[in-house]
Design goal:
It contains six helices and 26 strands. By secondary structure, the chain is α+β, with helices and mostly antiparallel strands. It has five domains: about 35 residues, no CATH class; about 90 residues, conserved putative lor/sdh protein from methanococcus maripaludis s2 fold (Beta Barrel), CATH 2.40.420; about 90 residues, Elongation Factor Tu (Ef-tu), domain 3 (Beta Barrel), CATH 2.40.30; about 70 residues, OB fold (Dihydrolipoamide Acetyltransferase, E2P) (Beta Barrel); about 130 residues, Helix Hairpins (Orthogonal Bundle). Helix 2 packs antiparallel against helix 3. The relative contact order is 0.18.
Length: about 450
């Protein structure tokens, strides 16, 4: 900080040098009295600005997808087709697992389904036979009902043929007609019983058909289940990519397992416990991810679409531009950082998982109030500025945002224990803030230069 030079007699020089370390902004006069010399400062006002800041963090290139392939069924590796470094296509056969008992069960179930279909056809034929028998029984009922009506009419006619109260027909003929009527009634009753029995047989035959068809459905479902298990004996590639791990050897016994044994290849271990060793680990190559852990103070400004750059050291510091594809939203409680992921196209496959990378995320704050970075000082863990009021420096706590190493965003200021926004009319002191005291008188630096003239 500049100070006004006073002409002092030589006899007082030694005394002045001794007192210089104690008086600070005070100096001695020629008569031995101290005089106040107000520190010179510059004045600025908050201005609307666009602030740009890049947050850079070292990291690694991660595969967009990296999959550990485990067997679904227990068996022996009959043949493996690809090795590490081999490119693969989606659906490509990677290994064949031999499970003889599974194939036998599948063959048996297919035969069972064929047998069930035959039983359905037999049951349908039984329905046709029962239908014909029921129709015959219905026809017999009509026949015997007609016989009953005929013999009832005949008996009535013979019984009414009388002269002077005496029958004119032979009694044996009337008796025979009556016997025929009773016989017709008995035949009708028998026909009704047969029709009822045939109807029950027809209903049972139809039920048997439904049961046979239901059994076909059950066995077909079991066959499909076994067919799915048989399909698992052929391990296929989930997507286009590269084989990065092979643990398959001819004759190895393998069992169904689970877990994410591929995670260490990307540098981050999964929280899912590993169970066994995967037969293959494959990774996608067309897209890669780069992680940037953004510090807590800048985390609120990072979102999807935020501009980003990635520098790959092993590729001659090649830089590739992109955007933040996704964020974890929540902060890591240990590092107090936000995970931001940048997806980069990798059609040529030059970026490989595990490569060192340096990610930079650009933060842009548009049209915000900002002041020079030198006007803000931290006092007691509180960001503070000095406002110029009535020729004095007034200490004022402030809330700040990002800075671009030259200017810093200011949100609010604390005046009389109340937080309020900036208006842009504030006059902020720029100078050696470490030597200022709250309420201390200051001089504008331009006035000092005027005095020197």
């Amino acid at each position: 900080m500049k100070r006004t030079v006073l002409r002092i007699p030589q006899s007082r020089l030694l005394l002045l040098l001794a007192l210089a370390g104690m008086v600070g902004c005070h100096q001695a006069s020629s008569e031995g009295k101290t005089i106040e010399v107000a520190p010179p400062v510059h004045l600025v006002k908050p201005e609307r600005r666009d602030l740009h800041r890049e947050v850079g963090q070292p990291g690694y290139v991660f595969a967009y997808e990296q999959t550990a392939l485990y067997p679904k069924v227990a068996g022996y590796i009959k043949q493996w087709m690809v090795d590490i470094g081999d490119p693969i296509k989606k659906g490509q056969l990677l290994a064949h697992i031999y499970v003889p008992e599974l194939h036998a069960r599948y063959k048996e179930k297919k035969a069972q389904v064929a047998l069930d279909e035959i039983r359905v056809r037999l049951a349908e034929r039984a329905v046709d036979v029962a239908q014909e028998q029921w129709q015959v029984a219905v026809a017999d009922i009509d026949k015997y009902r007609a016989d009953v009506q005929r013999w009832q009419s005949e008996v009535s006619r013979l019984a009414s043929a009388k002269v002077e109260g005496k029958l004119v027909v032979n009694e044996q003929i009337l008796a025979e007609s009556q016997r025929q009527l009773e016989l017709a009634k008995a035949s009708l009753a028998a026909a009704l019983a047969r029709e009822k029995a045939r109807a029950m047989e027809l209903a049972k035959a139809k039920t048997d058909v439904e049961a046979a068809r239901a059994q076909v459905t059950v066995d077909l479902a079991a066959e499909e289940h076994l067919a799915a298990l048989v399909s698992y004996t052929k391990m296929q590639a989930p997507y286009d990519g590269i084989v990065v791990v092979r643990n398959a050897n001819t004759g190895d016994y393998v069992e169904p397992r689970y877990g994410d044994a591929s995670a260490p290849l990307g540098g981050v271990r999964s929280e899912v416990p590993e169970r066994g060793t995967p037969i293959y680990v494959v990774t996608r190559t067309d897209v890669v991810r780069v992680y940037v852990d953004v510090p807590e103070m800048e985390a609120a400004y990072i979102d999807r679409g935020t501009k980003a750059r990635v520098r790959i050291q092993s590729l001659n510091d090649e830089e590739r531009e992109g955007t933040v594809t996704r964020t974890s939203w929540a902060l890591n409680v240990q590092s107090r950082t936000l995970r931001a992921e940048i997806d980069l196209p990798n059609p040529d496959g030059r970026m490989r998982p595990g490569m060192y990378a340096f990610g930079l995320v650009e933060i842009v704050r548009r049209n915000v109030f900002a002041v020079p970075l030198e006007t803000v000082i931290e006092i007691g863990n509180q960001n503070t500025i000095y406002l110029y009021e009535d020729g004095k420096a007034v200490r004022t706590p402030v809330q700040i945002g990002i800075n671009d190493n030259k200017y810093v965003e200011v949100f609010r200021k604390k005046v009389k224990d109340q937080w309020g926004p900036f208006s842009g009319d504030e006059v902020v002191i720029l100078g050696d803030l470490s030597e200022l005291r709250d309420g201390e008188a200051v001089r504008i630096a331009s006035e000092e230069r005027t005095e020197k003239r």
